[in-house]
Each structure stands twice: as structure tokens, then as C-alpha cells.
């Protein structure tokens, strides 16, 4: 436990400058972008005079210098205040709390599908490298990985929702259904089948190929040859020796794909009209809502860091060599 605690402490310390860089870079990029939320609001009203624009900018603090607003934003972050959304006229933290659970549910379900099924198919392919089954699964994974997520989502909608009418077309749950408890959970699950499939199948192909490649590299190693010389069954060798050691790089890929999956959820949420974190980012960009967009990006960075911290812990549990040199740090 000391080894894992030292590793976790070291990673948490290095995460602080990463967050500061993300905050500063995002703020500077938005500072140099043309227009602001007031311009977008006046366009939605059909126009407005300069006096109204000046009053709105003074109300939301947009008339101050960039350095002053950045300093105020840092002081607000120190109080866990993400600011005020100009487009929604609500605190950013409330919007994050409202939308983030939907995206986390989508990502967790898609990750479980892609990692679990991808690992099993990768083991099936890597159990006999070079076999017909291995080649068929590898070619299928490559073809699936080349499919754009939005295109796969649209195809699933046309087939399962429009033609067969088996699953809901869009949304997170049935609007104003009044369902509670288990009935509501089942309704949400039905709505998530298609978006989870569209998001998860793309990364399933990646996990399959990584698992298969990892097993192919483990087969020629000495400890596997020793296990075969002892007369162990091929099934036991695959599960107890080869697959277990090939799982380590797969866990690493899982952490690296967290950010990619969070970005991919933006497209999937738009296709299936899911009120999640990705659509919130899209609305912040379209409305030029800088405080909301900075809050979304900062929250996304924190999520990616937490996922990678979790992956580091799992990796240390699977491989005792990881973090052994950091116990005395």
C-alpha cells in the first residue's frame, strides 16, 4: 500500500501544473478569439445598440482587461467557483452538475463494452496467432476502427429505430414519462443502447488489436515455453500466463483513450440528442460563452487526470515493479 500511496502522491503533484497550463492556455485562446457572449446574445435578439452592449459587458465583467479577468477567475477557482454562464444565465457549476452525469454514464457504459468485449475477442485472436480466426478478427477490427462514429450512429438509428422500431430514436429517457425506480432505469438503458454501441464499438476494435498484439509478443517468451514444457493445457496457458501479461499494455491504452472517448462523446451526443457534457461544450462554443467553455474544458481535464490516476493504481496492482522506486520519495 505504501508503494501505491507514493505513486498516487507523485502523480497528483504533477497534475497541478497540468491543470494550470490547461487553464491559462484555454483562457488565452478564448481571449484572442473574435467576439464574445454579448455579441452572440445581441445577434439572437436581432441586433442592439452600443449602449446595451456596453451595459451587458459591464454587467458580466467583460469590459475589464484580460489580465484582470484571469486573476479574478483564478481566485474564483480557488473557491471552487467556475463562474457564471452568460448564455444560460446560470452558474457554470450547476450546468456541469446537471450535464456531467449523463456523459459519465455514456462513457462508463461504452468503456465497459469496448474494454470487456474487446479484451475477450483479442484473447480469442491471440490464442492462436496467424490462424484463420486471428486473421478474420484482425481484419474485422481494422474495418470497424476505420468507421466514423457519427456514421455508425446514424446507421444504427436508421436500422434499429426507424425501420425496426425496436429502440428509441434519441434522448436520454422518455420525456415526461413519470417513470421512477427500476422502470426509469430500464427506460434510460433502452435509450443508451444505440449511443453506447456507436461509441464503444470504435474503441472495441482498438482494444482487440492491442490485446492480440500483446499476446503475440508474449507467446515466444521463456516462461511460456517453460509452461508448455510442463504439459499445461493450452487453455490454462492462454488465461493464466499469456493473457494476464498482455493485459498490462491494454490498461495503459485504456487511460490514454479516456480523453479520446470524452471528445468522441461530443459527436455521439449530438447524433442522439443526449443532453450531456459534449453538447454543453458545443453550446458554449456556438454562444461564445467563455466562462462556460473554460469550465467545461477544466472539468474535462480533471476527469482525464482522475482516469489516468486510476489506471496508474490498477497498473501498480497488476505489476508490483511499478512505483517500487517511489516509496521513499
TrEMBL record:
Residues 100-315 form the ABC transmembrane type-1 domain. Keywords: Cell membrane, Membrane, Transmembrane, Transmembrane helix, Transport. It holds the Pfam family BPD_transp_1. Its main location: membrane. This is Peptide/nickel transport system permease protein. GO terms for biological process: transmembrane transport. It comes from Allorhizobium borbori. InterPro entries: MetI-like, MetI-like_sf. The lineage of its organism: Bacteria, Pseudomonadati, Pseudomonadota, Alphaproteobacteria, Hyphomicrobiales.
